[in-house]
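2024-03-11 09:14:02 INFO queue: dequeued item DUF1214 domain-containing protein, len=411
2024-03-11 09:14:02 INFO validating residues
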Amino acid sequence: MAYGDAPADKTLRAAWERFCDDLKQAGAHAFKDANPANPLQRADAFRFLTQNLGQAFDLALETKDPAFPQIHRFTTPTMKLGGDVADFTYRQAWISGEHTYRVTGKRGTARWLNMTVQGPRPEAIPGTGWPSLHEPFGDIPECNILGAQIETDADGNFELIIGGEPRERNWLPTTPGSRKLFIREAFDAWGETPTTLSIERVGMTGPRPLPSPERMIEAMDWAGRFVTGLMAQWPEHAWLTSQGVCDPESLNAFPADKSANDAADAKRGRMAAHMVWRLEPDEALIVEMDWHEGFWIFGMGGAFMGSMDFLHRPVSYTPARTRVDADGVVRLVIAHDDPGVHNWLDTQGFTGGNLTHRNLLTQSPAVFRSKLVKRAELMDHLPSGTAMVTPGERAALLLERYRAIKLRFGI
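2024-03-11 09:14:37 INFO prediction written
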């Protein structure tokens, strides 16, 4: 048997060739202006692409049937998407408003959990002319439930119903346009455990049908749009549509106005702020935030806004793992080499990237300041009581990080 012997051969090959063309086009964006022209970050751009190539058909085909739902991790220590933040885990399941679903699980000890039903993905962001972000993003949040609102038994086990008839507890409604369950979990102290989750359609019987040629062609086209979208849209889409969250023209500084927030952010359960940084080899950047109650996360990202190597490097800080100076100020130091400061953010050799702030438990804007200094003069710009670590203590902190991240992902 050879090509042309089956009726769908021609359309299948054409779809595959379109996908290969899309992949080639996606790779061309590795050389965009937003990605610094150095070998390490050019290579990282292709890594960003290949990490997502590995999940393109999981999203486009293997988990895509809402009649046979599966929960899929779309970021991990070895798979990043733009905008993901270290100390978060991200999961999703394709659903439909036509069905009712049962989510079962056991609540972990992570400080924050948010499960959101996402509605239709508009072609343009509401109220703007800007196109929606590439799949699987861009959906409009419809409703959500926080971990503290989920009722469990004494051991932390629970059942959450998605859709169907209204219920008094552990229920999220759906609409005819509902298409996705988005699950974000955020961790503070090392050793916090993840929430285990499984989803099934109520009344599901029989096996899932095998993909037809038409379904495979649809998946190839979806995967092609996915890989081209993620390479073309990060970081520029966020820069253009962030509504005050990010100002790329103000290098090494957070936007001054941190009141940006809307109803969709409330359903996502967070406020956000974003800074684009650039550092010469002999420079360091001090980032300050007045200490405030709540749960916040600082996380480093690369040029495409994917999180940095949070498994092996100190690229994120939360309240439980941050040292606060005597004047009540959180000071973080972005530097290419370890200055011995406890709150060091490792650039992992990149000349530029992103620093993201997430505020998860309050709606009060944070107050940020930043100062670009010469690396050799860094300590002259820090308080005398700045918390320091020895090389041995840094190694111990990194090992603690490594073990905690592996616990979160079960790896």
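2024-03-11 09:14:37 INFO annotate: Residues 238-409 form a domain with the Jelly Rolls fold (CATH 2.60.120.1600).
2024-03-11 09:14:38 INFO item closed
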